[in-house]
Amino acid sequence: MAMQDIQNTLIDIISEHSLHNVDKVGISSDLRKDHGIDSLKIAEMIVDIEEEFNFQFEASALSIETFRTVESLLKYVQSRAEVA
Fold it and tell me: Fewest CB within 10 A of the end CB: N or C in the chain?
């Protein structure tokens, strides 16, 4: 999957769990502050991301740093999607 396709798909997933539509999800957006994504929504997003990209999050990646911004999550997903 191309990098832009990964980004677009991830933004679609985030917007499904966000308080905003896809047009409001920017690469530097803070998932909690800007989009109201709490721990329950993060858990739901993890399931959706794992299913969409066919990989499982490593335990070490299940941290606030991975899920702080769209960009930090995108970097992790891109690294895992390339491995899968």
Answer: C
Could you report the per-residue pLDDT of 24-39, keeping only the tens digit for each? Answer: 888 999 999 998 999 9
Q: What is residue 45's DSSP assignment?
A: H
Task: Confirm if 42 and 53 have CB atoms less than 8 A apart.
Answer: no
**Which phi and psi (to 5°) does residue 30 adopt?**
-85, 125
Q: Which residue type, as a one-letter code, is found at position 28? A: S
Q: Which domains does the chain have, with CATH numbers?
A: 3-83 (1.10.1200.10)
Q: Which residues contact 17 (CB under 8 A, 6 or more apart)?
A: 35, 37, 41, 44, 45, 48
- Residue 54 CB neighbours (<10 A): 11
